[in-house]
From TrEMBL:
Listed GO biological process terms: base-excision repair, AP site formation
UniProt xrefs under HAMAP family: Nth
Enzyme class: lyase
Organism: Pseudonocardia kunmingensis
Protein role: DNA repair enzyme that has both DNA N-glycosylase activity and AP-lyase activity. The DNA N-glycosylase activity releases various damaged pyrimidines from DNA by cleaving the N-glycosidic bond, leaving an AP (apurinic/apyrimidinic) site. The AP-lyase activity cleaves the phosphodiester bond 3' to the AP site by a beta-elimination, leaving a 3'-terminal unsaturated sugar and a product with a terminal 5'-phosphate.
Cofactor binding, per record: Binds 1 [4Fe-4S] cluster.
EC numbers for this chain: 4.2.99.18
Pfam families reported for this sequence: EndIII_4Fe-2S, HHH, HhH-GPD
Disordered, as annotated region: 1-23
Cofactor(s) required, per the database record: [4Fe-4S] cluster
Name under which the protein is recorded: Endonuclease III
Length: 292
């Protein structure tokens, strides 16, 4: 299945060149500047460079939950809590066939619904959310998912993060999705020091043009899952290294870092930093960044 709507990044006629690699000295200078209070203009310029590099690094960035309608995306996003996109996508084809409308969820047999979503975890709470979501959409919105943040967050199981996912990817309304990956990375990169998701959303929204809010969420999440892992980031194989104040948190040796890069676009991710995929060791084990 494909997304019903997808924002596209703002780019020039040619793809921007990846940022140059960091050195220990340049990384130390940047880390000191950020720690001492990076000037607002300098931070904005650095974030702009990183965004252009992310667009070139992850041209395939998109919502990784499968859906064809706004309601399907809402359901998939509810199921994604404490689960993985891959797990949710394995469940939703049968679920969407069984419950194609909001009324179907409102009238669902709880035991049957719980059984169908059991593998995504927390299935009892999620079943309650989906039944309540269906009932609210039918009763308050004529069976059609609403298109505003205020109306979406009033629905059962829909928080601000979920609402922004729906707005940006199903309705084409710009929104920044602050999940665990996003918050971790923007703090690691020195874009903000905020911890509260809503404050993070507003801080990044002030740095990034509104038209790019949906795509910046995808770029950051893609990079977190493929390169900038939580416990051991692939610093030596990262296209953002020259603008990252925490360069060195993971291995800086290109070959050691290359072993941590993962995902279907691995060859491209290595090529963009000048590491031939044929020479790089394959990833070993499962990186924690993909965990819920």
């Amino acid at each position: 299945m494909t997304t019903a709507s997808r924002s596209t990044p703002t780019r020039g006629a040619a793809e921007p060149a990846p940022a140059p690699r960091a050195t220990a000295r340049s990384a130390a200078r940047l880390a000191k500047r950020v720690a001492e209070g990076e000037p607002a203009l300098g931070r904005a310029r650095r974030v702009g460079r990183m965004l252009r590099t992310l667009a070139a690094t992850h041209p395939d960035a998109h919502c990784e939950l499968d859906f064809t309608t706004p309601l399907e995306l809402a359901v998939a996003t509810v199921l994604s809590a404490q689960s993985t996109d891959k797990m949710v996508n394995s469940v939703t084809p049968a679920l969407f066939r069984r419950y194609p409308t909001a009324l179907d969820y409102a009238q669902a047999d709880r035991a049957e619904l719980e059984e169908m979503i059991h593998s995504t975890g927390f299935f009892r709470n999620k079943a309650s959310s989906l039944i309540g979501l269906g009932a609210a959409v039918v009763e308050k919105h004529g069976g059609e998912l609403p298109r505003t943040l205020e109306e979406l967050v009033a629905l059962p199981g829909i928080g601000r993060k979920t609402a922004n996912v729906i707005l940006g990817n199903a309705f084409g309304v710009p929104g920044i999705t602050v999940d665990t990956h996003f918050g971790r990375l923007v703090r690691r990169w020195g874009w903000t020091e905020e911890e509260d998701p809503v404050k993070v959303e507003h801080a990044i929204g002030a740095l990034v043009p509104k038209r790019d809010w949906t795509m910046v969420s995808h770029y950051v999440i893609f990079h977190g899952r493929r390169v900038c892992h939580a416990r051991k980031p692939a610093c030596g194989a990262c296209s953002l290294s020259a603008d990252c104040p925490t360069f060195g948190a993971g291995p800086t040796d290109p070959m050691k870092a290359a072993a941590l890069v993962k995902g279907p676009s691995r060859a491209h991710l290595l090529e963009i930093v000048g590491i031939p995929d044929d020479d790089a060791p394959a990833p070993v084990g499962r990186e924690d960044a993909d965990a819920p």
